Amino acid sequence: MSILAIPIVLSLLNATPTVEIRTTNGLPLTGTIAEFSVARIALQTPSGRRSLAIEQLVGLSIVQPAESLQQSKVRIALTDGSTLRAVEYTVRNAQATVTLSGGKTLGVPTEQINNVRFAPEGDTRAEWARILGGGSVGDRLVVRKGDTLDEHQGIMRDVTAGEVRFEVDGDVLPVKRPRVAGLIYYHAARPMLPEPACWISDVDGSRWPAQSVALDGPKLRWTTPAGLALVRPIVELKQIDFSGGKIVYLSDLTPESIQWTPYLRPDKELPILNEFFAPRQDLTLGMQPLKLGGKPYRKGLAIHSRTELVYRLPDRFRRFQAMVGIDDRLRPQGVMRLVIRSDQRVLLAASVTGGDAPLSVDLDLTGVRRLAIVADFAGGLDVGDHLLLCDARVIK
Asked: What's the per-residue H, E or C state across 244-296?
């Protein structure tokens, strides 16, 4: 970064950035933050000040966040669920110093650290996941051994920029940092922590649970459930997620029942056909990414006619929302009848064809505990009857 660019960066960090808020009713709202707490947020918009309860929010995104200054890839996982991307990690007397981008440091007791992974060399993610999931009764030092990883059990001592001091059978061994792939800390018991009010992600890729939040001019202060206190310019944040427990995607739920009926019934039931025409979660029936109306979707269901799915809703939800249509890859084929009902009444009955534009569905779920989705035949045999329910979700 040039010297001339420094004043520009400083002015950006001291400015109040524009943010976009997404609410549970799906309506976006853009403005600057005027007030922020775990109970309410106030936004200054072109049409005036708007105040919303946190319960109404799904997420908040910074419209033009600052560029990441990240220089390294030290990845740190805390016991409260925080995941940090850091420049450096050192420990002295069970107190870790985490150096974030821009030189900011954070003190964290090692009793709050789950694991640390240093910049990986080669594709060792699967091995790291295997080691991380294994059990132990002590700290574990993970070292590189050629193209693989190896682990040793003992007691983690101090960590410097040059070495990790690791105790095995009473001997403290200095291990050079380039050999170390990661550190895994053992905790006999973990305290029960309260649920966070939101999750905060920054431009460097760190993600923090926040128990309390407060606005401090162009900066945001927050405290994690474990008690860590942080402060960052809002422009260095990327998004704030309020959706925990408020939105549940159907693709993350297990149906209470699934019934598929073939258009032409075989003489005897063939399990392989049931498996082939079974609904897919977050993929099309052809095992491809979801795409509807030219727009890709990360979450959703793919259903062949005739299929009935029944879900027992895990809690009391207010709305069901989805974008519905025939899989883009099969248009203009496909003629189907979509029926969505509760135990008591039909909530939606609609024709869906490959020539239709995607249908936006927004249904009232007041009092609904079971939700049935039926993708039925509607003429044209069952050719192209691949129904997508993209972003299918229930909302509190």
From this structure: CCCEEEHHHCCCCEEEECCCCCCCCCCHHHHHHCCCEECCCCCCCCEEECCEE
Give residue-wise pLDDT tens across range 121-142. 566 778 888 898 888 889 999 9
Which tokens in the block code for residue 96? Answer: 């870790």
Q: Say which DSSP state 122 is in.
A: S
Position 202, amino acid: D
Which string of b and e fits 100-123 if b means at least 16 CB within 10 Å? bbbeeebebebebbbbbbbebeee
Burial class (CB in 10 A: 0-12, 13-18, 19+), 386: buried
So what's the pLDDT on residue 262? Answer: 83
Which residue spans of the chain are classified as CATH 2.30.30.100? 16-64+212-241
Looking at domain 16-64+212-241, which of 1.10.645.10, 3.40.250.10, 2.30.30.100, 3.40.50.2020 is its CATH number? 2.30.30.100
- Could you tell me the pLDDT band of residue 272, with boundaries at 50, 70 and 90? low
Number of H helices, E strands in the chain: 3, 35
Using the predicted structure, report yes or no on whether residue 2 has a pLDDT greater than 80: no
* pLDDT-above-70 percentage for the chain: 92
Architecture of domain 248-395 in CATH? Sandwich (2.60)
Domain limits, CATH 2.60.120.1060, in the chain: 248-395
In 3D, which of 141, 128, 135, 131 has the Cα closest to residue 168? 141
Residues listed for the chain:
396
